[in-house]
Amino acid sequence: MKFDHSGMFGLLFTVIPLIFFLIIHYKLKFPVICRLTDPLYSGAASTKRKSKNSRMLRTNSSLTAIQKTLSIRYFFSSFFFCLFYILIIAALRGPRWGTRIVQQLQHGADVLIAFDISRSMNVRDAPSINKDDGTNVSSRLERAVWITKKIISSFDNAQSVNIRLGVAIGKGEAVLAVPLTDDREAVYAILDNLSTMSMTSRGTNLEKLLDVSQQAFQEDFPSARQILLFTDGESLAGSINSALDRLNAKNIKIAAVGLGSVYGAPVPEAGIPADSSQRIKRKAPVISYLKADALMSALSRTGGIYIDGNREESPILLADTIKPNAISNAWVTREKSGERWHIFVILALISLSVSTLFTLRVKR
To answer: How many Å apart are CA 129 and CA 263, to the nearest integer?
Structure first.
């Protein structure tokens, strides 16, 4: 079984205060029900029987058969109400299981390019993008932009290829910078101005970045869907595994491009170079390095592809993963997982109905 919205799992913890509420409600309501159902307290002629001794006798005696029945009814009413609550939460998570084969006319490919623009992407430990500039390294983000431009230019010369491109950027939060479009100039414009200062949020959350990328795809547009993730693999929040499971459930392919060196390098502060003596006086530098093993481990669970962005042929390798899926007007066969949330809704309504049947009612 798979879930589209695993974040809803946290709502299950609200069942605990619900149980406490039902217990307190029982302790407050049940004595009142017992008094109303006790023969000693029924009828106009029973006023004299409502004495202190009668109350003490009733309190010390065991519950009558009807009172035991009421206690059992309340228990089952509360049980089925809690079950109703849990089933509704399960339905909100979007459960899926089982697959069926469907044929669709595929209209090219939709490719969403997701950039991790956290501060660690400023580290200059990636291969140079211009060997004539006198340097032998570039920043991780500069390398990612260079690879992306190489991939886009390779599409321009390809025949019978229909590709729409979009761009998402993320740090602690994530935004869709360019929706899926045929306008290459819009993509180039964001690439030319991309930097780690494009967003003000702090930290790194690859789960949010992938979730925003997923939302860019149109469910009613039949196309091959793929995400290119450029990152160094460092994630301070979120669960990339959960995001990859959701992508896999929606048949969205992903290729992650690892950037940086396994040995690492200092993260530069704003306005202070990484090797500056000013930084040493302030505090020890933060060392960031490529988390290649973590990325490959996460991708292996869902059949994703990992490519080392430090390799010279990485743009060609990435383009080769996209072009076979970008053929226009091709019939493709897909396995589609079935949505099962409606089953949980039906079971929840049944549980609510049963809970209502057991609800305590007193006729006066």
So the answer is: 20
